[in-house]
């Protein structure tokens, strides 16, 4: 846990407490001996999901999704992620229990001339490099941690011995290029990240616009989403449907669907198979990556969308029996389809009854 925290530039008690809250487990914080423990026996996949959730909520910039952020406390005790890449300041999940814990245990303030920081920086650098070298022999969780660690800026020893980020024009452009290449986090394996003029694809622009609204804790009006897609001239494109499903919906997806369904109806007027597959792909990313806690609710989500006549039986049944890595990796894809089994079973039985009648 200590190595993970250093790689993410966060105090080790923060991810430890986050794991404890998410897993309902007791934790042990021993700063003196550098021991941070989460009690219990837990599956690797679940631990990976929790770590991803911590990174998304308390590490990644709310604007550019870059991990080069620093936690700061505002004068009114709000927690701010100060991004060293794009310069934006975004908030964290205010309702999470960890937010209250951080407010009571704020991140340590940096002091100029503090030699321990330089020593910690060099130690963290060595550890990250060692983690990368050992990735092939470590388990899935550690390998995933290594992948996240590669994106974390390596500290540099400056005159004031503070953690620093290369802000030169070349370095900033390199990070921008890296971010552009990572657009599959928004659109999946086949998402184009730029148009013919080299600009961000309009679907990506829509996703980032929605994410900014979430980061600023703004209530998103479904009508605004529809108007934004029209402004970008992508209202009828099937990938737009995927973006809306996976980006606009949150952990309250079942209630939020009531407002989003009319938007989807406008975007799926032709009822094409591509649009239906994009709906299902967006759901895969929503419950498989963004909010794994929604997996048990997947049958209800599918039922609500199906009853709105946005999905056909044949498309759903084919999706339910064919694992694909188009939107998520195969392990997550399998997990999503297992969670959808109650609805798929109901759909199969309903069709059998219709044929019998």
From TrEMBL:
InterPro entries documented for this protein: ARM-type_fold, IF2/IF5, Transl_init_fac_IF2/IF5_dom, Transl_init_fac_IF2/IF5_N, Transl_init_fac_IF2/IF5_Zn-bd, W2_domain
GO terms assigned for molecular function: eukaryotic initiation factor eIF2 binding; GDP-dissociation inhibitor activity; GTP binding; translation initiation factor activity
Residue ranges of the region described as Disordered: 103-129
Pfam families noted in UniProt: eIF-5_eIF-2B, W2
Residue spans crossing the bilayer: none
One BP annotation, GO: formation of cytoplasmic translation initiation complex
Protein name: Putative eukaryotic translation initiation factor 5
Species the sequence originates in: Wallemia ichthyophaga (strain EXF-994 / CBS 113033)
Organism lineage string: Eukaryota, Fungi, Dikarya, Basidiomycota, Wallemiomycotina
